[in-house]
């Protein structure tokens, strides 16, 4: 079955076209848990990298600049703040759900 570039003249051909498109473009569905785990791993990695760069800069490593160290620290700080905000929203949502009357 081949998808042509002709105008779609019926609902049946539109349905076939959408089915072909769905089959040809794989969709990687990830759940909220996976997205949250990935975000936490990224936040952890950014923090570790900032700490490593800070240690290297403190030891006068000539390949590590102050600017690079400061940018890594800011990235880690922003990631941590975003993580805390997500956690606060999740706790608030859980609290709201638990306080609902059934």
What does this structure look like?
- Residues 1-9 have low confidence and may be disordered.
- This protein has a domain at 30-98.
- It has 102 residues and is mainly α.
- It contains three helices and no strands.
- Helix content is 73%, strand content 0%.
Quick summary of this structure?
The protein is an all-alpha fold. It is built from three helices and no strands.
Fold topology:
Blueprint: H1 11-24, H2 32-58, H3 66-98
Using brief descriptors, characterize the structure shown.
single chain; 102 residues; 73% helix; cilium; cell projection; FliE; cytoskeletal motor activity; bacterial flagellum
- Shape summary: flat
Mean pLDDT: 82
The arrangement of helices and strands along the chain is HHH
> β content, as a range?
under 5%
Structural class: mainly alpha
Number of helices: 3
Ends distance: 52 Å
Give the helix proportion (percent range). over 70%
Largest sheet: none
Strands, count: 0
Q: Any low-confidence stretches, pLDDT <50, length ≥5?
A: 1-9
Radius of gyration equals 24 Å
